[in-house]
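Researcher: Next entry in the queue.
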Amino acid sequence: MAQAWKCAGLRWSERGPVLMWDGGRRSPLSWGKRVAFGVAEGGVRGCVGARGYPCPVRAVVPARSTGARCEECARLDRAHSVAADGVADDPRPYRVYLAWFGPGLVKVGITAVERGSARLLEQGAVCFSWLGAGPLMAARRTEELLRAALRVPDRISYAEKRAVRAELPDAEEERTGEIRELHTLAVELAGWPESLTREPFRPVDHVGVFGLAGAPAAVGEVSELVSGGALSGELVAAAGPDLHLAVEEQKVVVLDTRLMRGWELLPVAAAGDGGEVRLPVRDFRKTRRSQEGLF
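Model: Structure for this entry, 295 residues:
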């Protein structure tokens, strides 16, 4: 029987996306590369643990969970997470950013200065600009200021991000227009923390990095992995945790690699040039709920 591997998630490096595996194995990905795997027959999805420790009860977790953790491990992970407000005394400097994911989808967020733009790649931000830099709590207060004064959310679901990638404007100026306007309004707001330094508008565009320029639009997304299922396709683009794979009859589906965690995965032979999908796929909705407005 072929050796089974457990996925540890997708990471972004300077050279592009990399699939990580338990034990330290890495699989660098590039456009045109074949991605093919099967799910062990009779297998179940196990909790991946937290903070580098295995789940003490080896809990089984739902196939559609993107966290891949049981309730106890998820609670432990959140307790030490800046994103979940589990850490208030981090001495590192932080940056506030504005990120754009598609027409009408803009969010505000924070990330440690030392991480550079890694957080934006991980979230699948099509373009972004820094807004300011300073201590953690000052960055948090600025984030809250934008939410309250300009009604800018700090969270956007991945389902919404995926649904609008087919609608991206061709021109970079059009893609950065919304955050340009919002940046102008944000830096003029009263109530900025004194310890946070404002930064000028310098947009960074990830369309080329993600391989989205000229890529065929995705028609749906894998909703879950199942025992005995399989997926094979050619990588045409990637954004955040998502792989865009050309499969049957060259149609493109999105695989959220977070759904791979906790499963035992097996290598499978590619099913011809077109690939195959033996997993549940959810078609993208024809309409979506978008932000009512930026301001």
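Model: The CA atoms of residues 32 and 235 lie 5 Å apart.
Researcher: Noted, moving on.
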